[in-house]
Write a structure and sequence with these properties.
Length: about 140
């Protein structure tokens, strides 16, 4: 029997939450692949999920004062997003795009992003509602 060992944060570590959503049929594959990536980094990344809808979260525990750990955490996140998108999923399952996922919007939505920008300008011409979130105008 395998014992579950709870990851422990080191002093100075911070947790950054990230999430993706993939078709339920691809969920085990996506989790296996990202766990293999995480295993090679030394970063602790507890995983929780809503397995019924293909959505799961990682909490990346790293020291933001350490440039190497920060780079590894960013690489895990970008790899996770690329995996999800390659499997027909999305860069975010429930946390929204905000600032941290807007770099992935072009890959996910392509030309539809221009339509989204036009709608945003039509209903918020002064860009006062969440400026700079989701995409740049």
């Amino acid at each position: 029997m395998t014992r579950f060992r709870r990851p422990r944060a080191e002093a100075g570590d911070q947790g950054i939450s990230t999430d993706v959503c993939v078709p339920v049929s691809r969920l085990p594959e996506c989790i296996r692949e990202i766990q293999a990536v995480i295993a090679g980094t030394g970063i602790q990344a507890p995983l929780i999920g809503h397995v019924g809808d293909g959505n799961f979260h990682l909490v990346l525990l790293f020291d933001p004062a350490d440039p190497e750990e920060t780079a590894k955490a960013k690489r895990i996140n970008s790899t996770l997003v690329a995996l999800a998108q390659s499997m027909g999923g999305t860069c975010t399952g429930e946390h929204g795009v905000g600032l941290s996922k807007k770099d992935y919007m072009e890959a996910e939505h392509g030309p539809a992003l221009d339509l989204m920008r036009r709608i945003k300008r039509a209903i918020d011409p002064d860009c006062i509602m969440n400026p700079g979130k989701i995409f740049d105008l």
